[in-house]
Each structure stands twice: as structure tokens, then as C-alpha cells.
Design a protein that fits this description.
Blueprint lengths: L1 E8 L8 E9 L3 H7 L9 H14 L1 E7 L1 H9 L4 H4 L1
Antiparallel strand pairs: 1-2, 2-3
Length: 86
């Protein structure tokens, strides 16, 4: 089994693009993540986040999607709300 971790930042044109990142962690490697102290990025210093980002992106499959403010506007004009865009 694998765990998919997702997070997003930004919510539309006033704030800029919406960025969604996801990483897949195999169950057998979840303990490694715990030992690294990965839990809540808001509680980490910017330097620690950078260090963890470099390590995690070398170890696991991940993807980052950037949805521009214009794309968000176009989707919202079609009746798609921000939760659906996410």
C-alpha cells in the first residue's frame, strides 16, 4: 500500500496561482518520514523545509501542478468552484 500526501497553496487571482503538490510514500518507508520529522510544514523553519524538500524529492515520486490565475478565472467562469479546481 502507498500513501499520497497532498497540499495546496494559493486560492485564486488575487493571491496568484494555485500550486498543488503531491508525494507518494510506500507504506514500508513511512517510518523514515516520521524519523525525518515530516508532519506539519507550517511548524518547520524555512531552512528545514528546504532540506526536507531536497531529501524527499530524491527518495519518492512526486508532482507539482501550478494552476495560473487566468486558468482559475476561466474555470470559475464555467461554474467550477475552487474546491473542484483543487
Amino acid at each position: 500500500m502507498e500513501t499520497l500526501g497532498l497540499d495546496e497553496a494559493g486560492r485564486g487571482p488575487v493571491l496568484g496561482p494555485m500550486v498543488v503538490a503531491g508525494i507518494i510514500i510506500p507504506e514500508k518507508k513511512e517510518k523514515i518520514i516520521e524519523r525525518m520529522g515530516v508532519k506539519d510544514s507550517k511548524r518547520l523553519t524555512p531552512n528545514r523545509r528546504t532540506v526536507l524538500y531536497r531529501k524527499l524529492t530524491k527518495m519518492f515520486d512526486f508532482d507539482i501542478v501550478v494552476i495560473t490565475a487566468q486558468d482559475i478565472d476561466n474555470l470559475r467562469a464555467k461554474g467550477i468552484n475552487l474546491n473542484q479546481i483543487e
